[in-house]
Design a protein that fits this description.
Number of domains: 3
Structural class: alpha/beta
Number of strands: 13
Helix content: 25-40%
Order of helices and strands: HEHHEEEEEEHEEEHEEHHE
Number of helices: 7
Distance between the termini: 127 Å
CATH architecture of the largest domain: 3-Layer(aba) Sandwich
Strand order of the largest sheet: 6-5-4-7-8-9-10-11-12-13
CATH topology of the largest domain: Rossmann fold
CATH class of the largest domain: Alpha Beta
Largest sheet: 10 strands, mixed
């Protein structure tokens, strides 16, 4: 006789159900976590973390009420719904004399707004007026009256001129030159202060030191070295000397005394005037029949300059 093998069908079915339940537990746990997270998010953006306190800090010249109004946040607003970067950008543009606006959440219900005032640093002269610009390149004012106490930038053509916006140049090289001078002025300890920078000709930049020395530095390559070199040359002159400094090559500067230059220019003007008078007199005395004019005496210019010292007839150069 054959042996008959008996199978417990109930036990087999039960084992399969247990295995299926075990396989479904991770999915069930995941769904529970997702649901709990969704509930927490919903509550945090509706019931929890609403603004109850707004604290204003910093040194800006605005009242707390003005700052809160321009930021556009009020008690009862949900902190999780606030886009802080957008609010900061908006407030910085509206609070023109504020350099930065920094907004932070302090849970569960406090919003801190820190506002720092802008420090005027530059007059940026352009075709239609002057922009008063902060140390961080924020436009504070568009005016026809520059601030005499600020460094003046000439020849920079701004792309943006609206107060509250940040200064940008229409030409990239202007941006680079201005940035290089900013870094130098703000970070270096200059013995002789820079008063103005004229970048109208980017290959022939003129820097005014202390309202008395104009430095023709050429292009802006090796800017730090050229300015440092010019400062050393100026420091070697007397404190009252006025004149013109020119970069020659890579390691020389030529200095011309302002008084000598003015005298030489006046002498040149007198010489031109004398030549014009001689030509006019010769034209009046010319023979109308043959149209010939008498020859000019070669001694006439020399006589005009007889009283001009020889050293004034050319621009003296002192090499440093």
């Amino acid at each position: 006789m054959r042996d008959i093998e008996k199978t417990n069908m109930a036990h087999g079915a039960s084992s399969r159900r247990i295995r299926r339940r075990r396989r479904g537990r991770p999915l069930y746990a995941f769904l529970v976590v997702v649901l709990a997270f969704a509930i927490i998010i919903t509550l945090s953006m509706t019931v929890f973390f609403n603004v109850k306190t707004i604290r204003v800090t910093g040194d800006a010249e605005y009242s707390a009420e003005e700052i809160v109004q321009q930021v556009g946040v009020f008690e009862g607003d949900n902190m999780m719904r606030l886009h802080l970067e957008d609010l900061e950008t908006q407030a910085e543009e509206l609070l023109i004399n504020a350099e930065t606006v920094d907004i932070k959440r302090q849970f569960p219900s406090t919003l801190v707004i820190d506002v720092r005032k802008a420090v005027p640093a530059y007059n940026v002269r352009y075709d239609d007026g002057t922009l008063i610009v902060s140390r961080e390149n924020k436009i504070l004012k568009n005016t026809m009256d520059p601030d005499d106490g600020l460094i003046t930038i000439i020849g920079y053509q701004p792309e943006e001129t609206t107060p509250g916006k940040h200064l940008t140049a229409a030409e990239e090289r202007h941006e680079k030159i201005f940035s290089a001078f900013q870094e130098l002025i703000q970070n270096a300890s200059l013995a002789v202060p820079i008063i103005s920078v004229n970048m109208s000709d980017m290959n022939d930049i003129i820097v005014n030191f202390d309202h008395r020395i104009e430095f023709d530095m050429g292009n802006w390559s090796e800017l730090n070295y050229k300015i440092s070199f010019a400062e050393q040359v100026i420091a070697g002159q007397s404190g009252e000397k006025e004149g013109y400094l020119t970069m020659i090559g890579s390691n020389q500067c030529a200095f011309r005394n302002k008084t000598d230059v003015i005298n030489a220019e006046k002498a040149a003007e007198r010489r031109i005037a004398a030549l014009q008078e001689t030509e006019a007199a010769a034209s009046e005395s010319s023979d109308p029949e043959n149209g010939e004019s008498p020859a000019l005496s070669p001694e006439q210019p020399a006589e005009e300059f007889a009283d001009v010292p020889p050293e004034m007839q050319s621009l003296p150069d002192t090499w440093e």
